[in-house]
Design a protein that fits this description.
There is one protein chain. This protein has 2 domains: 129 residues, Aspartate Aminotransferase, domain 1 (Alpha-Beta Complex); 224 residues, 3-Layer(aba) Sandwich (Aspartate Aminotransferase, domain 2), CATH 3.40.640. Helix 10 packs parallel to helix 12. 46% of the residues are buried. Strands 4-10-9-8-7-5-6 form a 7-stranded mixed beta sheet, sandwiched between helices. The protein is globular. By secondary structure, the protein is an alpha/beta fold. The chain is built from 13 helices and 15 strands. It binds pyridoxal-5'-phosphate (PLP).
Length: 396
């Protein structure tokens, strides 16, 4: 029996097999009571005294250390706040300042669009000849040259699950004098990450996917400890100031990672996330990764055996894959809606990707077999071929 499976710790509705923890993790059972007591006892009872008395002001660093533990970041090197898009912007802005002679930000076309949009926004703001360059994921290494200030990559591709090899890529990037930023949106809580060993300068990620922090849970940012007192924050908000309550008229960056804070922390969301992070106590990421791959391999084998209409879109080699498996099907959107209607929840990414996330904390081999059986029924009997399943919602 695996030590990883903690199904009873999550709220998963009867009759649902949840294969979408890569997009929004389910609610840990302990969250509702703790958030309720935070609301009533802390906000309700303590009012403004909660900032000191209930530890709200230190929560971004306290929870940051809990996240840091599962991504191999030393204590005091991770802080929570804002959304991932904002953290991408912060990391990029600080990275290019560390490399002032160069003007190019390199990323790849497999990156999540928001990361690229934020880079475009930054380039527009900086002017002075800055440029965002994107190449195919397989061409990143050969595209590195001495014009590049910073390389920003998402380790695991949100559509296909394809995974970059963090350590050698970082080494190649740094050997060319560039700064490395890793986006861990689909890595944190999904696969083993060792930021200390990888030695990258920056990392960012979100917490509502594999970390189960809930919709709108804050993002995290890591700055390598030797740089944390030197990086220049572009979003120089008062809570990243060295002495916020001195109310100086001029900005002075805070000590270390604290300078990456911006404004008032989302205390209610952080409370939910803190409860969710407690579930990671004692979880061995190597063991979790092994369990995740076992479920993925079972899913791929059973789908390929039973459902020839679907084509694997993820790398077959497990070392090149994160914690999700994607299949292509021309009517993938409708097929996914039909599947969701029958209790198997995955999601769809344009143009034709059906995405399934594997999270061994609340999924076992029986769930995988049941999901494949229901998917086979949908596909063999064309149950997706109905107008109601073809009308696209705002969120896919
Ligand atoms: C999920 C995800 C985001 C989302 O950013 P938010 O600002 O939190 O909405 C950004 N980048 C990547 C790589 C993602 O996977």
């Amino acid at each position: 029996m695996s030590h990883i499976l903690k199904k009873e710790a999550f709220v998963i509705p009867e009759g649902v097999i949840y294969l979408d923890g890569n997009s929004l993790g389910p609610m840990p059972r302990g969250v509702a009571a703790r958030v309720q007591s935070m609301l009533e006892d802390e906000w309700g009872g303590m009012l403004i005294r909660g900032w000191n008395g209930a530890g709200w002001m230190d929560q971004p660093s306290r929870v940051g250390d809990m996240v840091g533990r599962i991504i191999g970041a030393p204590v005091g090197s991770v802080v929570m706040g804002d959304t991932l898009s904002i953290k991408v912007f912060q990391a990029l802005a600080s990275a290019v300042k560390l490399n002032p002679e160069r003007r190019v930000i390199l990323s790849d076309t497999g990156n999540f669009p928001s990361d690229l949009y934020m880079a475009e926004g930054l380039v527009g703001l900086l002017e002075q000849g800055y440029e965002l360059r994107t190449v195919a994921p397989e061409e990143v290494l050969s595209a590195i040259d001495d014009s590049i200030a910073a390389v920003m990559l998402t380790e695991v591709d949100y559509r296909t699950g394809r995974k970059h090899d963090m350590k050698p890529v970082t080494q190649a990037v740094q050997a060319a004098g560039c700064i490395m930023i890793w986006d861990l949106a689909h890595s944190a809580g999904a696969i083993e990450v060792d930021l200390w060993e990888a030695n990258c300068e920056f990392a960012v990620g979100c917490t509502y996917k594999y970390l189960n922090g809930g919709p709108g849970a804050p993002a995290f940012i890591y700055v390598r400890p030797d740089l944390a007192d030197h990086v220049q924050p572009a979003l120089s908000g008062w809570l990243g100031h060295r002495a916020p309550f001195a109310f100086d008229l001029d900005y002075r960056p805070g000590a270390g990672i604290e300078r990456m804070r911006v404004g008032t922390p989302p205390v209610i969301q952080l409370t939910a996330l803190e409860v969710a992070m407690e579930l990671w106590d004692g979880v061995d990421m190597q063991e979790l990764r092994a369990e995740s791959l076992k479920l993925q391999e079972q899913f791929i084998a059973e789908v390929e055996r039973d459902i020839p209409q679907l084509t694997l879109a993820s790398p077959r080699d497990t070392s090149l894959r994160g914690s999700q498996v994607s299949f292509r099907f021309a009517e993938g959107y409708a097929a996914m809606q039909a599947l969701i209607d029958r209790g198997v929840i995955g999601d769809f990414r344009a143009p034709d990707i059906m995405r399934f996330g594997f999270t061994p904390m609340y999924l076992d081999a029986g769930d995988v077999s049941s999901a494949v059986a229901i998917l086979a029924d949908v596909m063999h009997n064309d149950l997706w071929d109905q107008d109601t399943y073809k009308t696209r919602s705002k969120v896919t």
